[in-house]
Amino acid sequence: ACSVFSQKSCEECLKNVSCLWCYTNNTCIDYPVRSILPPSSLCSLSNARWGVCWINFEDVIIAMAVVAGLILVSITICCCYCCYCRKRSRSRLDEEEEQLARKREERRLQSLQRKHERKLKHDEIRKKYGLLQDSDNPYSRFENE
């Protein structure tokens, strides 16, 4: 029983995990397992110790609330950041794809323009050496020499 350790020391009382030390009257009592926190009629939270003597229940509750709050805030921030990054990367990919399509079309038009210029140049050379048939008279007489 925990009451055996009353009026001794906190460390001796808390060696048994089912015991609770109360600093107001230096008593070792059984931990009330039916409730999560010991009721204030049994011992106030600032004077109650369980597990270790150097921290009281108020500090444990505050520390747990802070840790839980930090975890929730960090999870929320991570979720928001990931959602924002996905939207941003999708829009960035769409922009890059659009830019590539524009460049591809520009290259195609430049290629067609160069092809047309080459054809004109070749036609001039053919005309110069008499190899080009007249477009006015496609049926010309073939002369054997």
Automatic annotation (TrEMBL):
It comes from the Eukaryota. The chain crosses the membrane at residues 60-84. This is PTTG protein. Residues 86-122 form a coiled coil. GO terms for biological process: protein import into nucleus. One of its GO terms (cellular component) is nucleus. The lineage of its organism: Eukaryota, Metazoa, Chordata, Craniata, Vertebrata. Keywords: Coiled coil, Membrane, Transmembrane, Transmembrane helix. InterPro entries: PTTG1IP. It comes from Illadopsis cleaveri (blackcap illadopsis).
